[in-house]
Design goal:
heterodimer, A: mainly alpha, 4 helices, B: mainly alpha, elongated
Amino acid sequence: MTKLLRALHLSTATTMIAITGLTIAAELNSPLKNWLAATFSHHWIGKGVIGVVVLVVVGGLCWIWPHRSISSQRPVQFVWITTLVCSVALLVFFGWLALSH
Amino acid sequence: MTIWLTLSLIAHVAFGITGTIISYALWLKSLHQPLLLGWLRKASALATISYVTAWLTGGYYYVVQYGANVKPIIKAGAYPWAHTFFMEAKEHIFLLLPFLALAITGYVWQNQEQIDQRWLQRVVATQFWLSALVTLFGVVISGAVR
């Protein structure tokens, strides 16, 4: 696996974690949600913009950071597991939110 | 609703469904032996473009129209939880799709010997099922509005 692809996969997974964490945190913390809305005109836009920033920054860092050789499938495995965990977390969280209101 | 909002909504649905169909085709083709790398590369790039376009057009409609004019209708109707669960889950799970599509596109642009077909199958299947789920939630939201 090339350095670039490894960086892409690690940054993709990190972005998903960041978006999921930010989403849940913003729903539970009104000042954070209000800050996102005030800064980016809408909280959902803010999550998207922050997601892209995380992708670029983490991707860049992974690309320039020296690393030991790792299994070429480890990054894509990380992407897959992260996708599943983040999706389930969002479904469970919003299901809980809907039931508690 | 302005013409631009109408076109945004149509484009969002069209590109979202296109992305879902391409994801399904990617899943089927990932089962093929040997891998049809040329096809997979073009299709995964198209899927990424579809999801990003659906993201941008849907985002425009969501920010300008949905919050102020559609959400109150759903919240005041018989199914207020439709927004809380289906729309909120949809809009946030959807945010994962363009990044996942980008990761898949990068993965299939490697040399054949570096691609593990089992992992490719898992990832593209996940992309398809998430996209299908988001599409289904969109149908539910439309029903709640009516």
